[in-house]
Amino acid sequence: MPGEIAFYLIAVFTVAFAAAAMTLRRLVHCALCAAAAFAGLAMIYLQLDAEFVGFAQLLVYVGAIAILIVFAVLLTRGDEVAPGNKQSSPSWMAGAAVAALVLAAMAVAILHSPSLHRLAPSGAEAPVRRIGGELMTRYILPLEMIGVLLTGALLGAVVIAMRDEPETKQPARDVAPKPAEPLEALNSR
Amino acid sequence: MSAPLSHYLILSALLFSIGFAGAVARRSAIIVLIGIELMLNAANLNFIAFWRYGPHPEALTGVMFVLFSIAIAAAEAAVGLALVIAIYRQRKTIQVDRLDSLKG
Amino acid sequence: MKYPVQYLWLIPALPLLMAGLGALLKRDQRRLAASLAIGGVAVSWLLSSVAFFTNLSAHPFRQTWSFNWFDLADTTVPLGWVLDPLTAIMLMMVGLLALLIFIYSLGYMAHDWNFTRFFCFMSLFAAAMLGIVIANSLLLLFICWELVGLSSYLLIGFWYEKPAAAAAAKKAFITTRIGDIALLLGMLWLYSQSGTLLFYDHGHGCLEQSSLARLAAATTVGGMALSTAIALLIFAGAVGKSGQVPLHVWLPDAMEGPTPVSALIHAATMVAAGVFLVARAYPLMSAGPHPAALQVITWVGAITAVFAAAIAVAQNDIKRIIAYSTISQLGYMMMGLGVGGVAVGMFHLITHAFFKSLLFLGAGSVIHGCHGEQDIRKMGGLRKLMPWTFATYAVGMMALCGVPLFFSGFWSKDDILRAAWAWPVSTVPFCLGAAGAFLTAFYMTRQASLVFLGKPVDAASPAHESPPVMTIPLAILAVFAVLVGFLGTPAWPWFHSYLNGESASLEPAALIAGPQLALLLLSTVVVGAAFFLGWRIYGKAALQSSREIDPMQKSLPGLFGLLQNKLFIDEIYAATFLRLNAAFARFADWMDRVIWGGAVNALSALTVLCSRLNRSFDDSGINAGFDLGCAELRGAGGFLSWMQNGRVQRYLRIAGLGLGLLLLALIWGCK
Amino acid sequence: MNALDQIFISVQHGMAGLAPAPLQPLVLMLLSIAGLMAVFGSCFALTTILERKILGRMQNRFGPNRVGPCGFFQPLADGVKMLTKEDIVPFSADKALHFLAPVALTVPVWLAFAVLPFGRNMSAIEMDAGILFFFAIGSASELAVFMAGWSSQNKYSLVGAMRAIAQMISYEVPLVLAGVPVLMAAGSLSLPDIVQAQSNFVWGFVPRWNVFTPWGLAGFALFLIAAAAESNRCPFDLPEGESELIAGFLTEYSGFKYALFFLGEYLGLFAVTGLAVTLFLGGWQAPAPWLQWFPSWGWFTAKFGALIFLFIWARATLPRLRLDQLLNFAWKFLVPLALINLFVAALWWKVPAAMPVRWLLCAGLLVVPFVWLARIWNGTKPTQRHYDYAG
To answer: Does C455 have pLDDT greater than 60?
Structure first.
């Protein structure tokens, strides 16, 4: 019973923050609400006995992605709300309608599924040691691929976001690593 | 630890739809990205729920999938936001409805 | 030395590795980049030769090897390679040409500041092309197919700072993508029907008897055999890649790329990949009692052959002429496949690969010598200034025209004409083919006269001969352009027997048996007449100093103008696409405002819909007179462009709508 | 001895035994929380006054010496002052975020203490992925710093927050990487397991702590440096550099909220120091077999105090870095070294344990890149930097 209450509390928390993240006016608020929603999901993972995944979610989403989003908001001056500037796209009703359709379809599907009232088998757990073992044996190839992908994404992100130097003749300055860049950009404001 | 599986699925569907609605209805590219992340997370929640409630929780497949998915989401967010910043430099806007140079 | 088939992957892997290494090099490591690329392709050519000679004496003549790529629940997705005569021949050809053209590029690209990147892309291309050749799975073939398209895109747009090059790259990529989508659909369909994408799998492959019989027996829309439908979809992919009508528009523009690229990709290998695909899937194409797919292939090929040859007559850019000639020759190959089978088409593919890359490299040499000038009206008299280039070019030209007996093009083209003559369905393709041969000889005469004969004009005056690193590959290619033809003469059809896994015998009598002799004479006469006519019109013109106006333009201005503007195909596409796009954009606008905005006045909305539809019908009705094929294409393009208004959110919305509908359909389907 | 060692546990269970049975787990938990908050809260007070006195001594002056005996009631006085001060919220500030930021900073830091083993059987939660929890929780503080800086609507605050985030992100990488070899050695992410893996003694008297291996020593040094930066300690305290940024993201905070930030920073330092003790210094293990009579939490406290003293000492000795030096140091020096260290640690377990050879090989593999990198970065002259906003 306490588990159930905890679940509903966290679920309401998560959905509320997710909705806030999608509807609030200021982008910074949206980003922070999204971070809270991600944290709520991490709690749900913990509640589902997926300890490792929950912490990974927290580390990656709250620790990294939320920060990235916040940086992006500041660098694109997305937090400055002009009075007459509308935040929703012209045909947002169509979007909302499609989203509602999707929700309805999924809800119908879920409510008709035979696994509707299945309860969790007890004793399921994902010990870190076993996750590590599986990662190093059965999932070694995906793991390597993820490594390659992350490297590529890192390089790609740096290259894309790198500022084009106006004068190329100048010998390459001591290029500051990536996190320093947003700061420089910020300083120049 | 006794909420039935369907509640998790409904929660996931809700998150997915919220993310989707945000992604299609807001003008800011950053919100669109957040919405996409939410959708990804909803999918992850499904994986974890099915892993936990499935007949073979010892197989760890759902957990593994989510771990990989989180890693990919991180890469996606990094590249996506870098693109947003690059677009902002170029076009001075990140409102997706004004980025239509690919118009056919 | 035997080549074990499971190591066949080494052949494409080497250039791929070199491409990867090349990508890591710095811009000034030119020597290293070139040696890596050339070394990689040389070793893989050596391996190809070993594989070829292994296959020559192999028994059975087709060996395959496959492995599981990944498992998805109960489904396994295997990939694999095949070593059969088709593969072996293509491996030899691609490897050798790639090697020669890489070496040639050393000279041609010597002054380019992106030298290392060029070799990286070229290696990538070579890897992908070799991958297509060895693939024993339509999936692997498709992967490599897309990689080839990608590297073609990269190389056409190699000088991306030129807007024309960037546009041409985009055009090539997008146009071929239309065909690729059809190929993808065909692939998926084939998979859903036969359950495998392996070509040959010890009796279980999709090109083997059991599966073919099943596919040919089943019927689909309009009573068409399933095998025919799939074959046509696959052929659509080949149409895109091989520049057949109506998707040929990208190939002439692709000449914006560096000339070695044109020679390797847009003459010898990649565009021939479409032909190769049809040859590879030939069992599927010809399955069943009434292989309708082959008829389509024949007609498309024959029309392309004449159509492109006609346009080539009036072009002035030295590379564009050869590009249209390539399209035309690809049409011949398709026709050969349609009427005569794998061997006929493939033989022309091989001979064409050699003489056409020779011509391209020769043209490159001319351009190099004339400091980037490409307009043949501004050239002339290069015969004396560039003797090596002239001699090799002449060989290539005569091979292309089909000058009797000693040139490869003669034998392969004759092969096709003979098969077309014997085609039971219709004799029109034969006539079209003969007409095409005439036009080919004519435009080549025109080009050669204007470029090499007469006195030097304008740009040609300071021309110089190219360095040996360029002329030696030319000479080697010229030798091949002559010799390859003797592999498939009617007297000693070694090529055909090899492809069919038989052994050839020398029968000189076959040369004069049946209609053979008459056909040989006929094509000789056609070529001779064309040479004569060309010489009459242009041989003299070449002697004049100023030729701003083409002699044909003087006598037949209307026809010439039409041809010079490529029959206005580009303009027609542009006009219709734009027009329909506008109509669909209005439609989209309407959707947004009325359906989503609120269904309050649904009745009036219906009226508006009717009137708008009416109007768009009127609009396109006025523009009637265009043939049916283009109209269909136009519709498809218009629909696609409605969805592509460039705003991601529209795409997302459509995707979401699709997801919702799919789910609902599934739910109802399950009940 | 055992009774003394387990005295806190016994007391906790004894008190929980008074509660009705169904509530006992809850009561146990609450007692742990109360204990942690009491101990580290007072530790915070003690550290502030000790730091000021030690700094005073090192700078050849008296520290605070007015309030109470030898000035030891100074923290109390400070506390009273802080709590009674007016709470000022800037007019243009984002009120909600301005209020939430100190909370969001302090709460995760308290949570991080939950997994640290302070003595034998003395960790509030025994978690399978304890160290992962520690770092995951720690990452939340970056968002809190951002909230503080952004909600103040003040340029200095924003710049300070951005600096702090950049610094925290950058130093989190070497921090985690320096810890990874220990996890490899212990084969577990659970902190009690890691301590257990460092029990025993080599040759009967050298403790088998990680710091006594080449990779452990290097990892310990890297970890301490990164930890100092993570908790904004001198010489890495430029996000709140009072002379440059009028205290950075703290500018607009006063009174109780300011006190919370202050508390949060010190608690962060304590948490990461406790982790360093656990990972490298054998946690609560005694340093010699004949010293095992001393209670385990005593050893932990001793090591902990020594490390805190080290941090205070560093503050008195080293000058503050410049921002570009700070980030270059993280990415171009610490991260490569940490990666090399990771490799060396892997090698350590693969090379047969013929002691001298293994030692020499691994130490050499670490020292050579260290010297090389140090020479490279020492040789580069500081470059002229352009500050657009200055003019």
So the answer is: yes
